[in-house]
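Notebook entry, structure prediction.
Reason for the run: the old model in the group folder had no record of what sequence produced it. Starting over properly, with the input documented here first.
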Amino acid sequence: MQILTPHVYWAQRHGEIYLRVELSDVKNVNINLQEHNTLQFRAQGHGAKGDNEYEFKLEFLEPVRPEIKHKSTERQVDIKIKKKEERWWDRLTLQEKKPLFLAPDFDRWLDESDAEMELQAKEEKLNRISVESRVRNDPYLGLKKSYLFMYNLVQFLGYSWVFVNMIVRLFILGQDSFYDTFHTTADIMYFCQMMAVLEVINPLLGLVKTGAFPAMIQVAGRNVILFVVFGSLDEMQNKPVVFFVFYLWSTIEIFRYPYYMLACISTEWKMLTWLRYTIWIPLYPLGVIAEAVAVIQSLPIFDETRLFSLPLPEMLGNSLSFSYTLQLYLVFMFLGLFINLRHLYKQRRRRYRTRKRKVH
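New structure, fully documented this time:
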């Protein structure tokens, strides 16, 4: 019986080699790996030259694992071989000239970049299944999502009220509205900032995946400005800087909280997502600058009133002004700006990298 070579088609991924041998009604399949990473195939079946014994050899470009899987169907033999190292090969065989019987399997063919995206998609799918399996085991998931949704809704309504109130008064009264911003919006701002303490508690309880430390920096910083600088000094409550601080805070939050609300119900609005991850780039540093201006304006007032001053022994003086504490706080304020900007930038980059993968 004449020995012939069948048509063989190949494709690869980073970790596997796929061979498709064009033989039908196959019998006595013999596949083994010889020295120098040479695959030897021999079988009897119906190929291009009718019923005959067919065989071929392939010396692979790089080492492969000895475990070879194959499956025979009515039309072909499918062979799967694992590479020893997960990397992309420039070609299949050690010899540069391709054997005449070998051709690309275009049904399975992918370029290197396409194969990487396929691998990433598989990993994301496995991660999603893993997360979903864990989520299904949580009997309090619905309660947690309801709580987070309501929290973000209340905060959104509170900051929206402050924002709209300030804008309307600005159009009606012009610059005069700068001087009574605190008296018209402070109660709602107090409420929102006291509620914001939950943003530090939620990650500690595992209700959200964000870190507690960046949230603590932002909440603590805002509360110092609101309760200590503005709330305790009547002289600061009539200054225009209050308007700019409250305006910048509320502008950021009216986009941040709706984004989290929609995330609780697995919904996304692309424009809102873009605003949530973009608008903080100019507004967050401006907000910190406005807070710093408020602190600087309050320093002489604390020196004069001696409010919150620390009593000292007579030999060291009467008291230590609270303004020294605020000057130290200014240093930590800009350190917190750097930490939060870095955290927010990582969130933004991670978010858009994930979206890019989904698009591809």
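Summary: The CA atoms of residues 181 and 243 lie 6 Å apart.
The old model has been moved to the deprecated folder.
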